[in-house]
């Protein structure tokens, strides 16, 4: 959630608030009006989300306009949590609340016994504070040990010890959902909630009141409940009880990016890179991830998270920085040789099908090579690598690896006479610096190896094309 972009209003009492002409809106009307205003203005209400433009987002927008609670169904790493958090950006930046109220009630609409009493006693002098929208979005990871007290509330023994009677509603300590009054409560991995906890949510979502032990408090809670779930949990294991499913007005299926460009955009946006990773390497990682999602050797029920490619890009960047530090390079740039480091550490993020034990590394290596070959064909189509192949057939060798700097790699390339092959290859990828040129030419060499036009031998930290 973004930090405040404008200062909070200076109004400090309910009397000043009335004089200002402020209008109290229910939460759903507030979200609806802000969403429609952004759509009319041509603004993107969903910054940072890629690949959902024509599928998930239109469904979500209709659900919010209708005022529905929403559950997102999708495999891991499809951006469900990010999408839920973005809904918070549709709230008003600042909203008034009664100063000191436990549930953050609107000054025009107190709902608890304590706030109503104060409103009657103080009238227009009732103090008002302003809450930023980042404080009106709360998130809870559903775990089996989550209790009714955590989500709904319970009797507070300390308040009873202070002398209040058990029948006094002010002895109640409110849980997460009541405290999210006039805000959004997001529950991640909803099926992991025990069934009795799900039952406790029924009244909150349908009747908008809460039941705690022997108390029935008619609090007109104004909350939007959004949740995420894995469809395997949701449909097969049946761990969301049927009445709770019925309370969600919209069930929306998410998916992985359908276009390669969206996959690359997600990596660029989310990866924290410590060195330059050329676009063609990000494309290889994106294609690699997509190949894994289509492979019959991978358990597609668990999915292949977008975090796989993001972690891969970060690992490749780290390998480049490691080489630069060890070899004295001033500008670290990742190359094809660094992709192997990603395969070494990312295998544990994939669930393979039963029967593939022992073949995991071979599967990953094969799919990475396929992704590399596809990228080579995409960018080097029409370039004649004949002079380089001929030079290698005549005995030239090119060394690369963890201990070979970009400058040493370029210096070790065979001389091709009047051929401008190296310039063509660098130009095809927009390579300018030595590191970028080395990365581009190394991609060409790897493409020749995958096309079986040159050989490759890897020994420890050094790889020889020859």
Low-confidence stretches: none
Indicate the CATH architecture of the largest domain. Answer: 3-Layer(aba) Sandwich
Overall number of structural domains = 2
Kindly state the number of beta strands: 14
Rg, Å, rounded:
29 Å
Q: Summarize the amount of helix as a percent range.
A: 40-55%
Tell me the CATH topology of the largest domain: Rossmann fold
Total helices: the number is 20
The first-level CATH class name of the largest domain:
Alpha Beta
Mean pLDDT: 88
Distance between the termini: 53 Å
The biggest beta sheet reads:
5 strands, parallel
Q: Label the overall shape.
A: elongated
CATH superfamily of the largest domain: P-loop containing nucleotide triphosphate hydrolases
**Which structural class fits the helix and strand makeup?**
alpha/beta
Name the beta content range: 5-15%
Which sequence of strands runs across the widest sheet?
Answer: 4-7-10-1-11
Give me the secondary-structure topology.
Layout: H1 14-19, H2 27-40, H3 56-66, E1 70-73, H4 80-87, E2 94-98, H5 113-122, E3 128-132, E4 137-141, H6 148-151, E5 153-155, H7 157-161, E6 172-174, H8 176-179, E7 183-188, H9 195-206, E8 210-212, E9 215-217, E10 223-229, H10 231-236, H11 242-247, E11 250-253, H12 260-270, H13 279-294, H14 306-327, H15 339-346, H16 360-380, H17 386-393, E12 398-401, H18 406-411, H19 421-428, H20 434-450, E13 456-459, E14 462-465
Parallel strand pairs: 1-10, 1-11, 4-7, 7-10
Antiparallel strand pairs: 2-3, 5-6, 8-9, 12-14, 13-14
């Amino acid at each position: 959630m973004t930090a405040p972009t404008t200062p909070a209003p200076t109004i400090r009492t309910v009397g000043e608030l009335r004089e200002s002409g402020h209008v109290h809106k229910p939460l759903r009307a507030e979200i609806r009006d802000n969403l429609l205003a952004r759509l009319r203005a041509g603004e993107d209400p969903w910054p940072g989300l890629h690949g959902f433009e024509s599928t998930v987002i239109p469904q979500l927008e209709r659900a919010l306009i209708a005022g529905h609670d929403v559950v997102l169904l999708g495999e891991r790493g499809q951006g469900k949590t990010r999408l839920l958090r973005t809904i918070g950006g549709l709230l008003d930046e600042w909203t008034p609340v009664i100063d000191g109220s436990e549930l953050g009630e609107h000054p025009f609409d107190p709902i608890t016994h304590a706030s109503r009493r104060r409103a009657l006693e103080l009238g227009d002098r009732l103090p008002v504070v302003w809450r930023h929208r980042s404080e009106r979005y709360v998130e809870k990871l559903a775990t089996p040990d989550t209790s009714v007290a955590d989500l709904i509330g319970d009797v507070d023994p300390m308040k009873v010890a202070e002398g209040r009677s058990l029948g006094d509603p002010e002895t109640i300590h409110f849980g997460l959902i009541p405290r999210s009054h006039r805000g959004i409560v997001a529950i991640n991995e909803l099926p992991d909630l025990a069934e009795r906890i799900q039952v406790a949510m029924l009244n909150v979502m349908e009747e908008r009141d809460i039941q705690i032990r022997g108390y029935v408090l008619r609090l007109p809670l104004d909350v939007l409940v959004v949740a995420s779930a894995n469809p395997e949990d949701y449909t097969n294991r049946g761990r969301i009880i049927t009445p709770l499913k019925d309370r969600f007005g919209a069930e929306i299926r998410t998916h992985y990016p359908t276009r390669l460009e969206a996959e690359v955009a997600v990596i660029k946006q989310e990866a924290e890179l410590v060195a330059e990773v050329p676009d063609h390497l990000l494309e290889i990682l994106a294609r690699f991830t997509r190949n894994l999602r289509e492979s019959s050797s991978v358990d597609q029920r668990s999915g292949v998270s977008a975090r796989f490619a993001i972690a891969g890009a970060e690992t490749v960047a780290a390998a480049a920085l490691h080489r630069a530090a060890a070899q004295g390079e001033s500008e670290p740039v990742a190359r094809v040789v660094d992709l192997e480091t990603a395969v070494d550490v990312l295998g544990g993020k994939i669930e393979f099908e039963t029967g593939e034990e022992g073949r995991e590394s071979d599967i990953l290596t094969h799919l990475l090579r396929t992704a590399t070959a596809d990228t080579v064909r995409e960018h080097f189509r029409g370039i004649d690598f004949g002079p380089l192949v001929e030079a290698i057939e005549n005995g030239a060798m090119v060394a690369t690896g963890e201990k070979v700097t970009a400058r040493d790699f370029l210096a070790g390339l065979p001389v091709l006479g009047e051929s401008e092959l190296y310039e063509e290859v660098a130009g095809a990828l927009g390579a300018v610096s030595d590191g970028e040129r080395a990365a581009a030419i190394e991609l060409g060499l790897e493409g020749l190896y995958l096309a079986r036009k040159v050989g490759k031998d890897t020994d420890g930290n050094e790889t020889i094309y020859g």
